[in-house]
Amino acid sequence: MAFPGSRKLQTEDELYQYAVGALARQMRTVADLKRLLRRRVEADEYGDTLMELVIRRLKDQGYLNDAKYAAAYSSFRRDNEKYGRRRVITDLKAKGVHGEVIEKAIASAYEDVSEEKQARAYLKRKRLQKPKDQKQAARIFRQLMRAGFTSRTIFSILKKWDVDEETLSALEEEVPE
Fold first, then answer.
1. pTM for this structure?
2. How many Cβ atoms are within 10 Å of 151's Cβ, its own excluded?
3. Engineering a disulfide at 123: which of 40, 56, 98, 128 sits with its beta carbon 3.0 to 4.6 angstroms away?
4. pLDDT tens digit string along 70-113?
């Protein structure tokens, strides 16, 4: 049984109204919006054309702009989530933003940001403190890697916390090439 709201939209205006509503709820990339609209049109040439017309109309009106999205997303993740640049790049790629757009957004968002200060802010936000043993040091290392910080920055922080050399050398083996 299909849900009542999942009917296929037949006209450009219906699809446009649906897309504007989706953009009003949440900022989206072109790829995100295409994924959303694809479920609302027939899987044929007419549906594809309808979708492209709506996306062109939204771009022309300034409602859909991947560069603005990437800039806002990067700033939000930097300031609120305290993520490193690698994590933000990965997230934007997953959302379908073009590589050149990502490079420009990341360059401007992380222009004056010290990665070590950002990593320390992330640790503070997550309430992570100096590790007491090798297991905690490894956990913090992995968490900082997932948050998008470079291994050099992570090792710098761990060395300042006086983590023993044996633990650091064991963690160096985990670093992806």
1. 0.84
2. 15
3. 128
4. 999 999 999 999 999 999 999 999 999 999 999 999 999 999 99
| Statement to judge: residues 14 and 55 lie in one domain | yes
Do 39 and 80 lie in one domain? The reply is no
Please state the length of the chain: 177
d(CA 58, CA 23) in angstroms, rounded, equals 10
Distance CA 154, CA 50 (A): 49
Could you identify the residue written with the tokens 């603005």?
Answer: 68
% of the chain exceeding 70 in pLDDT: 95
How many Cβ atoms sit within 10 Å of the Cβ of residue 136? 15
Whether 2 shows a pLDDT value over 70: the answer reads: no
Comparing CA positions, the residue from 123, 119, 89 lying closest to residue 104 is: 89
**Closest-CA residue to 98 (of 26, 22, 29):** 29
Give the model's confidence band at 7: pLDDT under 50 very low, under 70 low, under 90 confident, else very high: confident
- State the amino acid at position 18 in one-letter form: Y
CA–CA dist 134, 167 (Å, integer) = 6
Q: Rounded to whole angstroms, how far apart are CA atoms 130 and 59?
A: 48
CB hemisphere CA count around 156 (13 angstroms): 12
pLDDT, the chain, mean: 91
Domain count, the chain: 3
DSSP class of residue 110?
T
